[in-house]
Amino acid sequence: MMYIQSRKRKWVSPFSSFLLFSPHFPLNLNCQTNWKRKKPNHSEDPNSRASSSSTTPPGGDYEVFLSFRGKDTRKSFTDYLYTSLVDVGIQVFRDDNELRVGEEIGPELLRNISQSKISIPIISDGYASSKWCLRELAHMLKCKRNEGQIVLPIFYKVDPSQVRHLIGRWEDAINAHKKNLDKMIVQEWEEALKEVGSLKGWESEKVENGYMFLHQDIV
User: Fold this and answer.
1) Whole-model pTM?
2) For residue 42, what pLDDT is reported?
3) Which site among 2, 71, 139, 170 is 20 to 30 Å from 12 CA-CA?
4) pLDDT at 218
5) Domain TIR: where (predicted)?
């Protein structure tokens, strides 16, 4: 596996090196992220790793935050991507809580998003129906605007143009939220969907060999 060394002699992970030089994401090299790569622990019990929601780095800073709707991708693409990133030593946070207490997103979760170097929202069919996913997405994009965080969306079996223009299920989801929630909050989510739909991202439907090839492209 190939590694790239920066001028400061800090190693850049395979994932970030792909992001820097991929034709899909022509990032400004001045924004290059120096990663502190954790060596994989091959003696670790895979069962215990699979039951954990995140790999916890010292100080709580994560390299990647995954946002996804569990019903859509937890047991397929998200789990596969998460495991692949962890296996190459990337510190990943994913929120695996199925049962929510109350309606407010916890400050710890927002902090994990803010402290991550890269956020990856996995935009699937039911993503916009989840208040939690939309709250995460809005905060990611806020961090992108205010702090320069990198947001790299994956459009999983969805058309980004429909997300961008709120067509079909995307419009239906926003209208459903408007019936029960504050209009200002829903407007923020609406703008977040339009913004993420305009970002350059991976589209699973355009990857020839499906999500298994897509995850290799990302890692």
Assistant:
1) 0.71
2) 44
3) 139
4) 54
5) 60-218
